[in-house]
Amino acid sequence: MWFWLLVMSFCCVHGTTIDDSLQYNQLDIRKETKPTACGANHTCDCHQTKKTFYLVDCSLRALSVIPTLPHNATEINISRNRLTGIPPGTFQWTVNLTSIIFTRNQMKAIPNGIFSSVNNLENVAFSTNKIVSIPVDLLESKINLQKVDFSRNYIKEIPTGFLSSALNIKSIDFSSNKISHIPSDLFENKTNLQTLFFGDNYITNLDSRIFDGNPSLISFDFRKNRLEEIAERLFSSTPSIERVDLSRNFIKEIPKEFFAKTPHLKHVSFERNKLSEIPDGLFRNTKALKNMDLHENELTDLQCGIFIELSNIENINLSKNRIRTLCPTIFSSFTNVKQ
């Protein structure tokens, strides 16, 4: 019975981990009228909402310069163009902006104070550019900010104090950059923070108290970094956590109390690490767990009652380890496993 469990696929953790609702690839066009041409040389489409406010779509226009934007724009999508920079004063008069999307351009730098006149920002996306650094004051005083996406760039450092005003933020994405260190204050007092995406970086350490102010955290993705150790109390203040992805690191040991305060945990992955054992009692408080990936580690043995509390498991992957024999009853609690 146990053999097919060892090679079972783990689709739920290594499928798309980012909720589609948190993506910024497309502007949310709530059309009340047919779009009208707007911007310099009528290069963009304006979708009118609430009489005088506009959702401005300038995506896929092969633009190398940002066109003049309507002063009453609330959301702007300038993705998939050829922009290399943002001229000073670009957003000086668009004070009603709540969403700005710059994904898939060729920008290398973001000017200081470029959003200083835009105080109602909620969503900012600069993913898939060539950005190397970000100004510490880029999003200063943006108290309504909810989502930021700087994924797939070349950012090496997040400045101390960045996002210090964004106390209502829900989603932060810095995946696929060159970050080696996370400032200790980055998540401080972010009580509404729900999703973190920092996979595919060079992070070597996480402070044990870095998530102490994040009781609403649901999804944690730090896959493909350079972590060797993880603090036992890392999730002691995140009772809402449901998804933990620490795959493709260099972790040798999981502390016994690592999941002691994660009753809602559903998906966990330690795929491709260097684990040699799973401590007894690790999963005793994770009765909601559905998907587990421990494949491609250095496990040689599993204690007989290690999974005794996991009656909701649907998928488990233990393949490519060094396990030769298993206790006959080790999977006896798995009544919902999918073949």
TrEMBL record:
Keyword vocabulary terms for this entry: Leucine-rich repeat, Repeat, Signal
Nucleus found in the keyword field: no
A Pfam family assignment: LRR_8
Residues making up the signal peptide according to the UniProt record: 1-15
SMART domains named in the record: LRR_TYP (SM00369)
Gene3D superfamilies in alphabetical order: Ribonuclease Inhibitor (3.80.10.10)
Top-level taxon: Eukaryota
Keyword NADP: no
UniProt protein name: Uncharacterized protein
